[in-house]
Design goal:
The complex is a heterodimer.
Chain A (H helix, E strand, L loop, with lengths): L1 H45 L2 H22 L2 H27 L4 H25 L12 H23 L1
Helix pairs in contact in A: 3-4, 4-5
Chain B lengths: L1 H16 L7 E5 L10 H8 L18 E5 L9 E2 L2 E2 L3 E4 L13 H9 L3 E5 L8 H9 L2 E2 L7 E4 L14 E5 L20 E6 L5 E2 L5 E6 L4 E4 L13 E2 L4 E7 L5 E5 L7 H4 L2 E3 L5 E4 L1 H12 L3 E13 L12 E3 L3 E12 L2 E4 L9 E6 L1 E7 L1 E2 L9 E8 L5 E9 L7 E10 L16 H23 L1 H11 L1
Parallel strand pairs in B: 1-2, 1-5, 5-6, 6-16, 10-18, 20-28
Antiparallel strand pairs in B: 3-4, 7-11, 8-13, 9-10, 12-15, 13-14, 15-16, 17-18, 19-21, 21-22, 21-26, 23-24, 23-27, 25-26, 27-28
Helix pairs in contact in B: 2-6, 3-4
Classes of the chains: A mainly alpha, B alpha+beta.
Amino acid sequence: MAPKNRNNRDVTPSAASTAQTSATSSGSAPQAAVSTSAKPAVNKSVSSSSSSKQDWNSVVVNLANSYRDSAPQRTKLIDAFMTFLVVAGALQFLYCVVAGNYPFNAFLSGFSATVGQFVLTASLRIQTTEANKSDFPSVSPERAFADFVFCSLVLHFFCVNFIN
Amino acid sequence: MRSLLSFFALVWAVAVSAISTTGDRLLVVLDDVADQSSYSKFLGDLTSLSPCPLSVLRYWPRRGFKLSFETPKSESLSLFHLGERAYDHVILFPSKSKGLGPNLTANLLLQFINANGNILLTLSSGSSTPSSIVSLLAELDIQLPADRTGLVVDHFNYDAASAADQHDVLLLPAPHSIRPDIKDFFGAGASSNEVLVFPRGVGATLGSGELLTPIVRAPRTAYSYNPKEQGEVVDDLFAAGEQLALAAAFQARNSARLALVGSAELLEDAWFDAEVKTTSGQAAKTFNREFAKRLSGWAFQEIGVLRVNWIEHHLNEVGASNESNPGIYRIKNDVTYTISLSEWSWSSWSTFKVPANDALQLEFSMLSPFHRLDLALDPSHSTAEAAAYTASFKLPDQHGIFNFKINYKRPFFTNVEEKNTVSVRHMAHDEWPRSYVISGAWPWITGIGATVAAWLAFCALWIYSAPIDQKKGAKKL
């Protein structure tokens, strides 16, 4: 028992260090995003409101264009699926608010099916994005998809059982 | 169940041999055994073995009590023999002695009541009440006048023929039930020109306990005073008006009965067939003989005795098993409960009819009742001798150990207290309704279906869009 614990203790600092490295590496992307968004903010303080609106429009158009042109097809597919899940989940929640939560297990399983599927799909997106390749050196896109399919099947099994 | 059957067999055996449901051994305690001649008609009615030839109109069933006569001071008098009751019923006529001796102490009489013995107790203003009777009545919350002597007089309702001066022979209308929901045992069927004569009697006041019920109350103009006090003006009344009970009933929790009659003279032959004259000058017949018969019949368990024949409860659901009296139910089950009751009246069991304005109620209780329901007459299970009462209801949404409880305690009726214990379990995991049965769940079922379908489509598209990625992946690998 004791040596095992010691092993665990030995392991933890290294795990923490990997977490730290991953945090710093992922932190670089938001910093970049902040620097890009800071530009229009500076403009806004100087120019009038109409011009800032035009700037915002151009930013959105640029963003959409670059997404359309440069994002891989699979990423777009994932995003479409996630959007669908958000809409489906929101509709179910709205129905619960409007029509009442009876039977509650049906609401829980229906709603959590969308939420769980969203989480799994988001994980798939993170693991298959080219930019995150360095964070998952051992996870190939095929492996990520297989994990995704397996976890999704488990999720669907639980939800169908729980809705009774 | 077996003990119940043997109990019914016992009741049947007793019913065949005697008219009373509890036995036929009757002890009559008189100061002087020779006094019994003045009560010969009353005692003759108790022992009569054939319909009374004197009253053709009224049905006199045989009552068949076996009388034993004793004096209070007799050595051989004992209410108990080897720890068992030696008699089933006792009539105590007034005694001139101060106490009733060591064999009739208040404690012994109470023990007799506790052992299901019945007592008919008579008082008289002619002699002071023995101390053991006073303490027995005090034990039952019945108060007698101070100094153990009292006389009830009424200057408006007296017998003009026999008590024109003293006004101490009261003429009362036939007694009626004191509340509309109480069956009229004592005065039913009396004609309007019959009066109950109450000669030279003692009135008592009753405590507020539910075991006590007045049978005859004094008229509003009557009062009770101590005749030994000499004086022109009565300034020390014991009680007046309707608070004076001239005849009263006590029924213990074990349904043993004690009937109190303020005037022993009421039971004498002389008043059974006497002609009396009201203050307005009209001649009237006395109701005393019928009243004495009914009062003794009530006291000795010949009327107002209830019997539970059977109790049955079962699931009342389509497709459910039809088992009787199951030990376990599930919450929210539909259940039917039926109880069969008979009432003994004089010589036979008959259907028990709940008096108008009253209800027989069933409680379904765990510590406190979750349901209290009126039981309705169920003609399909009733017979000529037994009435079945039934109620159907849905069990509460609460699991635990519950009782079907009947607690029917009414004046003049023997107590009915029945408890049937059942377990109520919660829903089994496969007894809940499926989601697709509940229309409210359909949107969420659709939600899961949409999610799964979209996921399948997503997987198909993902694999379909694979080549580009694979090329890229292959390049990078």
